[in-house]
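Quick question, first post here. What does this chain look like in 3D?
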Amino acid sequence: MQFQPIDLYLLSPELSLVVMALVVMAVDLFVKSRRVIAGVSLVGLLISAGFTISLALTHTGTQKAFSNMLIVDTYALFFKLIFLVIAAVMALTSYEYVGKYVKATGEFYALLLFSTVGMMFMASTTELITIYIALELTSIPLYVMAGMLRHDERSAEAAVKYVLLGAMSSAILLYGFALLYGLTGTTDLAGIAASFSKIAQGNMVVIVANILILAGFGFKISAVPFHMWAPDIYEGAPTPATAFFSVGSKAAGFAALIRVFMFGGLNVVDVSTTVIAFSIVAVLTMTLGNLVAAVQSNVKRMMAYSSIAQAGYILVGFIGSFATNRPEGNSSVLFFILVYVITNLGAFAGIIALANLTGGERIEDFRGLWQRSPSLSLGTALCLLSLAGIPPMAGFWSKVFLFSAAWSLGQSWLVIVALLNSVVSLVYYGRIIKVMFFDKPVKEDRLVPTMGLSTALLLTTVALIVITFVAQVFLNVASPAASILLAR
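> Answer (accepted):
Ran it through. Tokens below.
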């Protein structure tokens, strides 16, 4: 491996975050101050974001380092900023919850930072072995976070299920990678794409590899039938960890999946079989997620099935680009992921605030929330309306862009299924809003969310409002990131 000094600069966002995660561990060992630990974590995220923005401003095109194992392009930088935003919002929303329920403050924040590093690597590598290592760096801290409610049997159960199912999905993914290496003799995605020009159409090894890779990443994005882990783990894990799973893990899974399938040219040898497999998964994911979410009484389980349904929508946009080798679908996918991340973080900020104030996580615990905490209920309702795709919220525009792109790329029947599922989603999102604003409150008191949660909810709500009015601008920002995937 030939090392260049510039390589360290290209690695600076991840490297700085690893250093700050180690600093968090040291501070926890000697200081034992939750406020200091959370502050150091936020500083680390800001430093990493500074390096990421610096790379975006000073480097154009595609930069490679460490023998092509690290790649810095607009696609990677786009996702890195999303992951850093997720981690920063989680650091704010988890502050009171961790002190009240988890107790292990240093461990929680260090795991949050290490998992974020893994997510950043998942978006910024085009080499199969490095992708797998990044996936494990992302997942192992999440396994631990799921079981951090040490006196709660549901949390222990969630951690065990997450470990077992995660190990199985990693093995399936690795087997798919191994088939690609055995067929092409390289683990570099660009090399794999070049090798496919010499392979006959309909090669069964490629088809099997595609399906295995879809199954492996399907676990990370909680797509049906690889979704079975999500509801129990979302319900049993600490609520801030659940929020992190729902956006961070899913966004990282899609970042790697899209990179592998598009940049690796896996649609060159046989596109029809893989498109059929993706389409079946997308329809099952949307339909099961929405139908089962509509009958949930626990809000965390409802959000779990909601996130499953959202993964189905994202697949609809990706399938169009995969089938036609055009960037429009992936541009709308990136914009949809951005809006989904912000919206879901805001919704979970409201859920965490309610859990902190009342100890309840059932939908009925939201009764009369408007009278008890107007600001909390308004922010949460706006986020739920965006998730449902109600105009003129940002979530409406993300669906308009996604479904329009998919329709123009020949996936009209998938768009119709997605629209019908969007109607179903109004049932459970609307039920929470109805309970908050029209039911009598459980108690006649006032609920005041903490500063961290209030700040997180305010930031996400303001971001949604801004995106609502300049949605096209953000879509234009996502377009170069999507187009880079076709430049092999």
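The longest strand covers residues 63-65.
The mean pLDDT is 84.
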